[in-house]
Design brief:
alpha/beta, three-stranded parallel beta sheet, globular
Length: about 100
């Protein structure tokens, strides 16, 4: 699978996990590069919201990216999930689409 990855980070006011650690882990596991050249074809957007509030919504990017993974979807039920598993959840979400 050949694709690039863009990342968006929330402001980090109430973060529940180390977003930088997750970012580094995803980059290492996917061996993908980030792009900022305005070309969104075959590019996955990963939104790293730090908490359940989900300050960065996927809606504003739906017309730009075909594949968006937003950690808000994982965090809304974070009390029932292992936060250490967020990286695996993100990667699984990318590869299943």
């Amino acid at each position: 699978m050949d694709f690039s990855v863009d990342f968006k980070f929330c402001g980090g006011c109430n973060t529940r996990y180390d977003r930088k650690k997750v970012y580094d882990s995803i980059r290492e596991k996917l061996q993908a590069k980030t792009v900022n050249n305005g070309c969104y074809k075959d590019t996955v957007l990963i939104i790293l919201n730090g908490c359940q509030r989900g300050c960065i919504s996927s809606k504003k990017f739906e017309n730009l990216y075909d594949n968006i993974v937003n950690t808000h979807d994982y965090l809304v039920s974070w009390c029932n999930r292992d936060l250490n598993g967020i990286t695996d959840w993100i990667i699984d979400s990318i590869l299943m689409k």
